[in-house]
Amino acid sequence: MIVLRHCESEFNRLFTATRRDPGIPDPPLSEHGHRQAEALVPALAGEKIDRIIVSPFTRTLQTAAPLAQALGVKPVVHPLIRERAAFSCDVGSPPARLALAWPELDFSGLAETWWTTGIETPEEVEERAAIFRTEMSASPVWRKTLVVSHWGFLIALTAASMENGSWRRIDPTKPLPAV
Questions:
Q1: 172 by DSSP, 3-state: which?
Q2: Residue 179: what pLDDT?
C-alpha cells in the first residue's frame, strides 16, 4: 500500500516558523499545501490506486481530494488513522460540519467527538497502528490502497518519519523494521 503524509497545513506552516502551537483546531492546508496536493496527482499517476483511506481531519481530506478526483475514487473515511493527540491541530471537526464541506463522503460512522481528547501516549498510537496494519494485511486490495494520514500515526505504522506531502510504499504483511 502507499502511505501519504498530508500536505502542509496552516498549523505546520506556523509551527515550523515559531516552534509554538498556534492554537488552530482542525487546520486546513496552507497555500503551499494545496500546491503540494495538486502536485501529487502526476506524481502518483503511475501507481495503481483503486482505494483511498483518509483520516477525518480537514488537512487529510484536502490532501486526498485532488487525487480522488483525478482517479475517480471516493475516499473512505477512517478515524483509526487519525493523528496522535498532542497539539491543538489534533482536535477535529464534528461529522455534520465535515459532511457540509465534503457532501460526497460518508461521515455517518464517526462519533460526534471522534478524535482523541487529551494527550495520547506513543503506546496508544502504536496500538491503533497495529490494529490498522492487521486490517490492511487482511484486505485483498491493500496493494492498490492509498492511506492519507499524519506524522505521528505514520511513524507508528512505518517506523519512519515522513515530511508533509511525502509518500512511500509499505507492505503491511511484513513486520516493522527494528528501531
A1: coil
A2: 60
